[in-house]
Design goal:
Layout lengths: L1 H11 L5 H13 L7 H12 L4 H13 L7 H4 L2
């Protein structure tokens, strides 16, 4: 139920703002209100990063560095 609420929050945001996508990713990254799912978090962080959200870039870098939800690639994470 919480998962659907998070997705609904994003879908109701008419501009699909970076903060909404990043916030949903954050919930999945930390397991706040939903089961922790790094792959799902990466998906949402990518959506936010596509709109130049600095925080989303940070979290994507952390995921790539540590191999959370994606294959670890420390060299790529440093970019």
């Amino acid at each position: 139920m919480v998962r659907s609420l998070l997705c609904r929050h994003f879908l109701m945001d008419k501009e699909r703002s970076t903060s909404s996508a990043n916030q949903v990713g954050w919930h999945y990254y930390y397991g706040e209100g939903v089961e922790r799912d790094y792959s799902e978090a990466v998906k949402w962080f990518f959506m936010a990063a596509d709109k130049d959200c600095a925080e989303a870039y940070f979290y994507l870098g952390m995921c790539v560095m540590e191999g959370k939800g994606v294959v670890a690639d420390p060299e790529e994470a440093r970019r």
